[in-house]
TrEMBL record:
PANTHER family named in the record: ATPASE
Pfam families given in the database record: AAA_14 (PF13173), DUF4143 (PF13635)
InterPro entries (UniProt xref): AAA+_ATPase, AAA_14, DUF4143, P-loop_NTPase
Cited SMART domains: AAA
Domain (AAA+ ATPase): residue spans on this chain: 18-148
Domain of life: Bacteria
Species: Chitinophaga japonensis
Record-given protein name: AAA+ ATPase domain-containing protein
Length: 455
């Protein structure tokens, strides 16, 4: 069975004394329903409701009070009402009955002993203005495509997963982990894709699934947009996003179109709300707080790198390459690292961050920023020697600390580096297969710096 690390987050929710109904967010086909069904095996009773079905909708449409609703649901699914304290109710496709979203507040206020999870297709909720969530009376959890660690678990590479999570990574494990990461880079993290590959180990057989996923997102827009012009704009935005992913973009003329900034900005922000993409605005400071500058051009991150590779037709370029930085100008692996960073973040407000300095004489850009222990740690996804990391040097000249990270195709080691301005700092060089492990490595990195400083 395809296990998800997010189950740990669900267990934490389950144990909260002041637990609220949980709304699981995520794009279509990222495995929300399967995840909850897997989680439900830990409950004596499980009630599954799909509000696309008339019989499951009816109790919500006839709602008068929460006690009557609960009795109706337990009766409908032939479950014991006396065991409601030990029951999980999963309301799927909840956006089909707008009243059901408002009813979630009554579960929290009047029946907090019942475990309630809801999920739905986000594109539908965005275009239906009748739908609103009960603010302050529900919790949120975001499901994203599978991480490399989840991929390893799915394909049965348990020994590799164990070594991936060992800090520091033993040298003997790097070659195999990098090979496996390259496979993960090809296919991405969409659960249906990962599960099919885990079963058949045939990359060429995945094409129909990619086609179905992409077509499904395009069809969603056509079904729920409010006008034909909106349909065409958003369909173009979806297609063009795969081509422009990993790059900084401008809304005007996006994807070599005739669309203006206003209509294309609206289309891309709609897709962002649906978690199909992220518009990542740059930071210009080297200290907290993180404050993205929305006046500058954002960088585009799409849902899944495997879908991106398929859409662009670059899967074969990845096979056999010793360094993913050689593929698609390095944009693909940089994009994949961003996906890895997001994969372990379940908060609805989670996002990616990067840094720019835009001056006529010396523009610079650092791929990612990670907030850790009151510091902004710069992370570059780059090949080449330390001396070629010009943007990283410029960032470190203004940073009030001496820690930086590079993800690349080489071995794990720590370098002592000097900027052009003469500042010394330490660079943690990690194989890019360890992207999700960066937060784990930072305390170890700091410890190693302290040891070096004492010598």
């Amino acid at each position: 069975m395809f296990q998800r690390n997010i189950v740990t987050a669900l267990e934490k929710w389950r144990l909260q004394p002041n637990r609220k109904p949980l709304v699981i967010r995520g794009a279509r086909q990222v495995g929300k329903t399967t995840l909850v069904q897997q989680f439900a095996t830990g409950f004596p009773q499980y009630i599954y409701l799909n509000l696309e079905l008339a019989a499951d909708r009816l109790p919500f449409e006839q709602f008068t009070n929460i006690d009557n609703l609960l009795q109706a649901l337990f009766f409908l699914k032939n479950k014991s009402y006396q065991q409601k304290h030990h029951s999980l109710i999963f309301i799927d496709e909840i956006q089909e009955v707008p009243e059901a979203l408002n009813i979630l507040r009554y579960f929290y206020e009047e029946a907090p002993e019942v475990f309630v999870i809801a999920a739905g297709s986000l594109l539908e909720t965005i275009f239906d203005q009748k739908i609103s969530f009960p603010v302050g009376r529900v919790d949120y959890l975001v499901v994203r495509p599978a991480s490399f660690a989840e991929f390893l678990n799915a394909v049965g590479e348990t020994a590799a997963l164990e070594q991936l999570q060992h800090t520091p990574l033993p040298a003997f494990a790097q070659h195999k982990l990098m090979q496996l990461f390259h496979t993960y880079a090809i296919i991405g993290g969409m659960p249906e894709i990962v599960q099919h590959y885990a079963t058949y180990r045939d990359i060429t057989a995945l094409a129909p699934i990619y086609e179905s996923l992409i077509t499904g997102y395009l069809d969603d827009v056509e079904k729920y947009a409010t006008s034909n012009s909106q349909v065409q704009t958003i369909r173009h935005a979806i297609r063009a996003s795969f081509v422009e992913a990993g790059k900084r973009i401008k809304f005007h003329g996006f994807g070599k179109s005739n669309y203006g900034s206003r209509e294309m900005g609206e289309a891309l922000r709609t897709l962002e709300k649906a978690l199909l993409l992220h518009l990542i605005y740059p930071n210009t400071g080297a200290t907290l707080p993180l404050l993205p500058d929305t006046r500058k051009s954002p960088r585009l991150q799409v849902l899944d790198t495997g879908m991106l590779n398929y859409f662009l037709g670059i899967q074969k370029l990845i096979i056999g390459t010793p360094d993913l930085n050689n593929v698609y100008g390095g944009n693909m692996v940089e994009h994949l690292v961003g996906q890895e960073f997001l994969a372990t973040q379940y908060n609805a407000l989670s996002d990616l961050h990067f840094w720019v300095r835009e001056k006529t004489s010396s523009s610079a850009e650092v791929d990612y920023l990670l907030q850790w222990e009151g510091k902004l740690i710069p992370i570059e996804v780059k090949a080449g020697a330390e001396g070629t990391l010009r943007s990283l040097h410029l960032f470190m000249d203004t940073a009030p600390h001496s820690m930086a990270v590079r993800l690349y195709a080489g071995p794990l080691h720590i370098s002592s580096v000097q900027t052009l301005e003469g500042k010394h700092y330490f660079l943690l060089n990690l194989p890019y297969c360890l992207a999700t492990q960066v937060p784990t490595y930072l305390p170890w990195f700091q410890q190693q710096i302290e040891i070096k400083n004492r010598i």
